[in-house]
Amino acid sequence: MCKKTDVLVVGGGNAGLCAAISAREAGARVILVEHADRAMRGGNSRPRNLRAMHDGPLATLLESYSEEEYWQDILRVTEGKTDEALTRMTIRESA
Asked: Rounded distance, CA 34 to CA 45, Å?
């Protein structure tokens, strides 16, 4: 099968999906290819590398991840260079 494309994206993780979506929104014909088995697709997005506040244990998580813990993580990784009101709103909306 031969298809014409403007953009070929290799990998369906966060970066690949963002690239594919952006290219498509800009009008490009896009093909995204992924080598990983179905259970492993999604790259670093697949495990708990995406943060979302939650008040109690979830089926695959062992403990809660509070708003304050999330906030402290953001402060640590941004070295305090973050807008507190915007960040806390984002944290709350992630739940």
From this structure: 14
Each residue of 32-69: pLDDT tens digit? 999 888 877 777 666 555 666 666 665 565 577 789 99
In degrees, to the nearest 5, what angle opens at C-alpha 41 toward C-alphas 37 and 44? 135
Q: Which residues pair with 65 in a beta bridge?
A: 54
Record the pTM. Answer: 0.48
Residue 34's Cβ-side half-sphere holds a number of Cα atoms within 13 Å equal to 16
Q: Three-state DSSP class for 55?
A: coil
Q: Any alpha helices (H) in the chain, and if so which ranges?
A: 14-25, 67-78, 84-94
End-to-end CA separation in angstroms for the chain = 43
Given a contact cutoff of 8 angstroms between Cβ atoms, the answer to whether 30 and 12 are in contact is no
